[in-house]
Amino acid sequence: MWWLSIWNGTEQVPGLRQIASTLYELSTNGVLLRHTVASLFRVTAGFYLAVALAVPLGLFLGRHARINRLVNPFVQFLRPISPLAWVPFAMLWFGIGDRPAFFIIFIAAFFPLLISSTTASASIHPIYFQVAANLHLTKWERIHRLVLPAGMPGIILALRVSLGISWMVVVAAEMIAVKSGLGYLIIDGRNALRLDFVIVAMLTIGIIGLLLDLCMTRLEKMEAVRWRLEHK
Amino acid sequence: MNTSKIKVDQVTVEYTKSNGSKWLSFGNHRKRKDGECRVVLHDINLRIEAGEFVSILGHSGCGKSTLLKIIAGFFKPAAGEVRIDGRKVDGPRPDHVFVFQEGALFPWLTIGENVAMALRSVADSKERLQQSREYLALVALEGVENDYPHMLSGGMRQRAEIARAMAARPDILFMDEPFSGLDHLTRLHLREEMLYLHIMLPRTTILFVTHDIDEALQLSNRLIILSEPPARVKCCRTIDVPHPRNPASDDLGELRAQIYHHLGVHTAL
């Protein structure tokens, strides 16, 4: 009976019954929560760091085509290198612990954010800058009344995509350098041949990813960016 | 002879075709030796007095908008110069306000905030809001200050844009086919409002680019017709018929026939 093997599991895959009981056990004894918080903390730190650097830099590059032409080859050169290829350097530079994980998440989120914010600010219709020149907006007003709001829809989309990437990468980063987090739970489960641990961790990763994305879609519906949907 | 409000002296504009692709750069400053060159405006000379309402007519693509943007300071001509009140134009200025053909309200700001952008010299935010409401009322827009531009019809957006321009208290108002995207009835309404605004603010000089001959006939006290490119001033006509004008009257009818003739239309009458 196929449903019986789903329930009881096979050699390769643990059954639903066991997964449910492990899920219950790991949630009630706080292990799952601790690992999830650890992963979320790393993602948050690395992601914020990337946002803080990539978005202003991208908006700047988008408005300065000549500098962008100089910088862009470097960006395009670094971009396709998988964040995981940085693992050896991350460990060499930052040792063991949270910091190499921050660094790897930072790398993962940085390039998509940089490229999208560059595009977002480069594609602002020139007419708005003519209006700004006409109304004599100061440099600061030009940034926070024009470039930032006009680029915001593109930036938010980039945040959504790169947060997803960060969440994907944190698990991989945690398989290497740290002793906590959902990635560590998976590796630990593999080493202990506890595939139910692995599956519980995977389920949690998926659910958190879904929740993060839901948060980001809410951001897209904010008043400040709604104009983009209706604007021709 | 330097008393004219706006003095356009031998302005010439060339587009330069670089790399065999697009018409790229503007004026002389980036002209390339290998680039093909096309003269758009050739030797344009104009004198415009303070408070005039001048319409510029011409075939599409003849450089009407370009001329307007040069006078407003957005572009530099390849040759010649523009002087306003005796001072050479070297860039856009807050008292020379341009109303664009395409909607140029900031879509991320409400209508009220858009108008308030021109009122940034008013320090008090309540006072600023109050004033932006007054300017919106001037163009018959009320109760929309909290709406975003995309919530409004094209005609209302264009009205808001005029309100923003008026809020900047312009000395000169440049209007680049401001009503061309609107339906006929809305255009007629906005035409009336323009007339009303010009009567209310007689010191504001208005330069109005249009291809609607009736619009030009009804609004302006002078018409300037540009020839086909390389465009020169083909003819100037002063209209001293008092407002409100009936475009079907004999005086204007004859003038209209002349304008059509100058624009090379002989049968559409």
Give an overview of the whole structure:
Chain A contains eleven helices and no strands. With 232 residues, chain A is an all-alpha fold. Chain A has one domain (16-230): Orthogonal Bundle (MetI-like fold), CATH 1.10.3720.10. Chain A is elongated. The N and C termini of chain A lie far apart (57 Å). With 269 residues, chain B is of the alpha/beta class. Chain B folds into two domains: 6-95 and 170-262, Rossmann fold, CATH 3.40.50; 105-168, no CATH class. Chain B has helices spanning 64-72, 111-117, 125-138, 154-167, 184-200, 213-219, 250-262; strands at 6-17, 23-26, 36-48, 53-57, 79-84, 87-88, 96-99, 172-176, 205-209, 222-226, 233-238. The longest helix of chain B is centred in the last third of the chain and has 17 residues, at 184-200. The radius of gyration of chain B is 19 Å and the shape is globular. Classes of the chains: A mainly alpha (232), B alpha/beta (269). The interface between A and B is medium-sized, with 22 and 24 residues.
Question: What structural keywords apply?
Answer:
heterodimer, A: 232 residues, mainly alpha, 11 helices, elongated, B: Rossmann fold, six-stranded mixed β-sheet, 7 helices, 11 strands
The fold-level CATH name of chain A is: MetI-like fold
Main sheet attributes: strand count, strand direction, barrel closure of chain B: 6 strands, mixed
CATH architecture of chain A: Orthogonal Bundle
Radius of gyration of chain B: 19 Å
Q: What is the N-to-C succession of helices and strands of chain B?
A: EEEEHEEEHHHEHEHEEH
Uncertain stretches of 5 or more adjacent residues of chain B: 16-34
Topology (SSEs and partners):
The complex is a heterodimer of chains A (232) and B (269).
Chain A: H1 2-8, H2 16-28, H3 31-63, H4 65-78, H5 87-94, H6 98-122, H7 126-134, H8 139-174, H9 182-191, H10 195-220, H11 223-230
Helix pairs in contact in A: 2-10, 3-6, 3-8, 3-9, 5-6, 6-8, 8-10, 8-11, 9-10
Chain B: E1 6-17, E2 23-26, E3 36-48, E4 53-57, H1 64-72, E5 79-84, E6 87-88, E7 96-99, H2 111-117, H3 125-138, H4 154-167, E8 172-176, H5 184-200, E9 205-209, H6 213-219, E10 222-226, E11 233-238, H7 250-262
Parallel strand pairs in B: 4-9, 4-10, 7-8, 8-9
Antiparallel strand pairs in B: 1-2, 1-3, 1-5, 5-6, 10-11
